[in-house]
Write a structure and sequence with these properties.
single chain, mainly beta, 2 domains
């Protein structure tokens, strides 16, 4: 199972991001002092039922490599651009979306025009249209308000790689997990990070890995604090506002604490305590999403999506 993740390295200020091939894409790593099953139980809550897994069919078997969230009328899935911008997908029909016990084939990709394969440029967001509508699952509501989400609790949901904060990710079992983490800061206040993301650091039970402390982050972890890790790129970050659950972010990259100057970093984005999860803001791209769903307003949208994807692959 192959997909992409991003490794931020500190160079003069954090001026550089490089892309590396990984065993998978994004998932959930938990606190070492918590029962791991609590994270599986959290993911089973009905408000997270819209999160599914992207994959390909190989000899009749579904091989997962990324994630996405069902939105709109149940025929559209929101994910990260780098989940669909991969060489082994030669056409949209090569991609499948598994939700529960059902698997749905993709019909079209729509990648935002800002995406150029460089995580520091932003735009790591895409829409996938399925060949048929998903039934029996309520699509997620998009967070479209202008209010800042800094200091809100974000609930991340994903499949695949897992482990604990002391050891980092270690296994891949395609199990959906969820975790909670505070949205600490928007990328726009940090040099060389795109303005369309928000960040959350992985605080340890001993409160000694507060990587984003310079930006007002607290050191004490939440009860089910966690971190993204290879296993499910494109996964969801939900927030609850006035009792309503909204899809607020899409998992984009994992950064080692060292990239932010923290002494506890090991220069490897392996989801240990102190590492930082970057997620694309849904509210930032709400106008684009609404213009594309339920149907593209013009053929220009298609050019931004499928044709743009194929052109980039030919250039590569």
């Amino acid at each position: 199972m192959n997909s992409w993740y991003y490794r931020l390295r500190r160079a003069s200020a954090m001026a550089m991001a490089t892309c590396a091939l990984c065993a998978s894409a994004w998932s959930i790593v938990w606190r070492h002092d918590r029962d791991a099953n609590l994270y599986i139980d959290l993911a089973a809550q009905p408000q997270f039922a819209s999160v599914g897994q992207f994959g390909i069919h190989n000899n009749g078997n579904f091989n997962g490599f990324g994630s996405g969230t069902l939105i709109a009328d149940g025929r559209w899935v929101l994910t990260a651009a780098h989940v669909v911008d991969v060489d082994f997908l030669s056409a949209p029909g090569d991609l499948f979306f598994r939700l529960g016990d059902s698997v749905y084939q993709a019909e079209a990709f729509y990648i935002h025009s800002r995406w150029n394969g460089d995580i520091t440029n932003g735009g790591d967001i895409a829409l996938v249209r399925l060949t048929q509508q998903v039934s029996g699952v309520t699509p997620a509501l998009l967070y479209q308000a202008t209010n800042s989400l800094v200091a809100q609790t974000g609930y991340s949901v994903g499949f695949g790689g897992n482990g604990n904060g002391q050891d980092g990710y270690t296994d891949f079992d395609d199990t959906r997990r969820a975790m909670e983490n505070i949205i600490d800061v928007y990328g726009s206040v940090i040099d060389s990070l795109p303005d369309d993301v928000f960040l959350s650091d992985f605080d340890s039970p001993s409160s000694d890995t507060n990587t984003l402390s310079d930006f007002g982050s607290g050191a004490e972890p939440l009860y089910l604090e966690g971190m993204g890790a290879p296993g499910d790129s494109g996964g969801a970050v939900f927030v609850q506002i006035d009792g309503v659950w909204y899809l607020a972010g899409v998992h984009s990259f994992l950064a080692d604490a060292n990239a932010f100057g923290a002494s506890w970093g090991n220069e490897e984005p392996d989801a240990r305590y102190g590492d930082v999860l970057g997620s694309v803001r849904v509210d930032y791209y709400a106008d684009w999403i609404n213009a594309t769903v339920p149907e593209p307003t013009s053929m220009a949208a298609l050019a931004v999506g499928v044709l743009g994807l194929l052109a980039r692959r030919r250039r590569a």
